[in-house]
Amino acid sequence: MALLFPIFVAALVRLILTGADRHSVWIAFRCLPAKVQAALGALVVSGVVLLLFNTAGTSNLQAPEVKDGRYFAFDTTPHARGTIEVSHSQYVAVLKSDQRNMLAIPGLLFAGAAYLVFAAGELRRADLGVRAGAAGKRPARLRRQDGGP
Question: Taking the CB of residue 86, how many other CB atoms lie within 10 A of it?
Fold first, then answer.
């Protein structure tokens, strides 16, 4: 978790350095293999569903804590906001709910970082191909197998 934000920022900087606009980044993502696109899509969809189910829960309690052996949670009910005492079972339920959020949010950010890195890599590969094409030759890894130009 400690590396989440540096990884995300590095991915964002890498994409910014390509100088591509959003449309080009989307096209680069569409050029990735279908399995990579499906895996990233599944990560994003599962993270969003987890967040929605957790947010749409019937409980208005959050931020559980223990003080002097008693259990408290913050109640977000309109017109009754504040810290209230809760039972142990409610405390455990609120704690699990908060932990689910703490898994979904970093998961979404890591999926976004992967999207940015893969798209930037695809843009870089395409740029190398364009530069080599302008020079009249292809890079070794893009050269045809039959020995053509």
Answer: 19
Nearest-angstrom CA–CA distance, 21 and 23: 6
How far is residue 117's CA from residue 96's CA, in Å, rounded to a whole number?
32
Q: What is the mean pLDDT of each run of 10 residues along the chain (149 residues)?
A: 78 83 85 88 85 68 78 77 79 77 78 85 77 61 49
Axis-axis angle for helices 88-134, 34-55 (nearest 10): 150
How far apart (Å, rounded) are the C-alpha atoms in residues 88 and 3?
33
Number of residues that make up the chain: 149
Question: What is the Cα–Cα distance from 64 to 97, expressed in whole angstroms?
Answer: 10
Helix, coil or strand: residue 81 = coil
Q: How many CA atoms lie within 13 A of 77 on its CB side?
A: 9
**Distance, CA of 113 to CA of 16 (rounded, Å):** 13
Indicate the pairing of strand 61-67 with strand 82-86: unpaired
Three-state DSSP state, 62: strand
Closest to 71 in 3D by CA, of 61, 62, 84: 84
Q: Which of 84, 47, 89, 78 is nearest to 63 (CA)?
A: 84
